[in-house]
Design a protein that fits this description.
Elements: H1 2-20, E1 49-50, E2 54-56, E3 59-67, H2 73-83, E4 88-94, E5 97-103, E6 109-115, E7 122-131, H3 136-141
């Protein structure tokens, strides 16, 4: 009986310590090293979900995404505008969802905020790397889903 009670006390203590441990909150995206919006915090951390590797035009895409919480698309775009220095911004709508695309100068990195369907709320943010980089013309079509390969 004494062994049973000791084991029960140890288990309860371990559960109590585990319940108080807050998951690590990432400040930067592991793939790109770019800053992550505080709106990616689920309350249980903000680990990314992978995007399937694919090709866009003649470029290989590797990416990941995060859900966004308690923010609008406009507020998320303002945060990224302030925190992605040197990135260009383009905005459009595809299938009832606002998309805001930030791209670096050589088209090798895109950060894409997607809004909720017919809603001002933000839904997700994707961090994408392209090799080789996408052309300016191709990037210009991303927000409206009208990608043109050249």
């Amino acid at each position: 009986m004494k062994t049973y009670l000791t084991a029960l006390v140890v288990l309860c203590m371990a559960l109590a310590v585990g319940a108080q441990t807050k998951p690590k909150l990432l400040a930067t995206d592991p793939l790109t090293g770019l800053p992550l919006s505080p709106s990616t915090d689920t309350g249980w951390g903000n680990n990314p979900d992978p995007l399937p590797d694919s090709n866009v035009c003649k470029s290989k895409l590797h990416g990941e995404f995060y859900l966004l919480f308690h923010t609008t698309t406009d507020a998320a775009a303002a945060w990224y505008s302030q925190n992605l220095k040197g990135f260009k911004m383009a905005k459009g709508t595809e299938s009832g969802r606002v998309q805001v695309v930030f791209s670096n100068s050589d088209g090798t990195v895109l950060v894409i905020i997607t809004g909720g369907h017919n809603s001002p709320d933000a839904y997700s943010v994707a961090y994408q790397q392209y090799s080789p980089g996408l052309s300016g013309k191709t990037i210009a079509g991303v927000p409206d889903g009208k990608i043109v390969c050249n």
